[in-house]
Amino acid sequence: MKILLRNSADPALFRYFNKKTTAGSDLEMVRASIAAFKDKESFARMQTIGGNDVYRDVSADDLKGEPVVLVQSSGTTIRASADEYALRTLITLRTLKDAGAGPIWLVEPYAGYMRQDKPTEIRDEDGQRTGEFYLESVSAKTLAAYKKFGGADGYSTVDIHSDMALGFYQDEFGADNVINVDPTEVYAEYAKALGIEDLVIVNPDMGADARAEKLRQATGFTERASASKDRNNAGIGPSTSSVQSMEGDVEGKDVLIIDDIFNTCGTAIGCARELKRKGAERIFAMAAAGTFGSDGLTKMFEAKAKNGAPLFEQIYVSNAISQRERIHNLESEYLEDVVKSRVKIMDFAPLLWKHITEDIMTHPVMQKKDDAPAPKP
């Protein structure tokens, strides 16, 4: 089986996988250039194969009939947009299929477009729901079909945004060929490392309630708090949200906000301000992925409590999406040690490696040899 890992995932993932694979063994890494020409047209080129820093040029026979695991995030980085990464995924899938590769399992540590899982409900002038919906794209469904068409036979991602989005992928690939990787054990490891015995786990909205409860159980912490919010869309596009209520006792206590994605970070900041109003002490924030649109990371980092202290003690996101450039930009404005002490990267590499070796390598889909020609577009 071959593993191809490039693009918007953090380089730490590649280094980890490189050390776990061995040239000439049953499990090898394929190095590829998946980028863009000067005119911004994307391309994919398989270059070398091997492992543990021993690589040779790829030949046509290396991939023919071989099962391949493509690890590729589609979250926006400073270098490229989610749109560009999504297109590169399609191009890479087709390149592998056209080269005669066997079954392909696509692993997206972070999968873009999952929040676009239903049309937006129209609100009236008073912000009340009308029961009518805009005619707009449901891109989570579209992207599921596009990945299947591209040549993927199985699919997995980490902490998928919603059951609705999960259903789209199950419809395309079959329920048995889609895996939602649970990162709770990683969250728990970092939460317990804080060394706070009575840490309160908080969901910033009701969509994160189950995630927060799983984390509470995994850590053994006893206390929970729960926020609910209202989202008001003036029209198609960005929305605004505000915390409507907060349940749970947080007065004088340290808290951890847990969510799947930090994007513009309005929800996290709004929740943190409400927690402070309720008397919370230190506030930590954690999410599987940081897409950080509209300088969301900077907004979280610079947010202040009423006493002028940082609103967030520490901000945790995983390396499902590379944060190197964003952190570098912060370090150009603030002391490097201060940034490193407050912005923490959770390592998903062991979780993903375990998923590939225990779930994907033994999956029935990946046992077959697919010598059939690639379907025509």
Detailed description of the structure:
- This protein has about 375 residues and is of the alpha/beta class.
- It folds into 2 domains: about 1-180 and about 350-365, 3-Layer(aba) Sandwich (Rossmann fold); about 185-345, 3-Layer(aba) Sandwich (Rossmann fold).
- It is built from 12 helices and 17 strands.
- It has helices at about 10-20, 60-65, 80-100, 140-150, 165-175, 185-195, 210-220, 265-275, 295-300, 325-335, 335-340, 350-360, and strands spanning about 1-5, 30-35, 40-50, 55, 70, 105-110, 120-125, 130-135, 155-160, 180, 200-205, 225-230, 240-245, 255-260, 285-290, 315-320, 345.
- An 8-stranded mixed sheet has the order 4-3-2-1-5-6-9-10. The protein has a 7-stranded mixed sheet with strand order 13-12-11-14-15-16-17, sandwiched between helices. A two-stranded antiparallel ribbon has the order 7-8.
- β11 (about 200-205), α7 (about 210-220) and β12 (about 225-230) form a beta-alpha-beta unit.
- α6 (about 185-195) packs across α7 (about 210-220) and α10 packs across α11.
- The protein is globular, with a radius of gyration of 22 Å.
- The two termini are about 25 Å apart.
- The model has no long low-confidence stretch (mean pLDDT about 90).
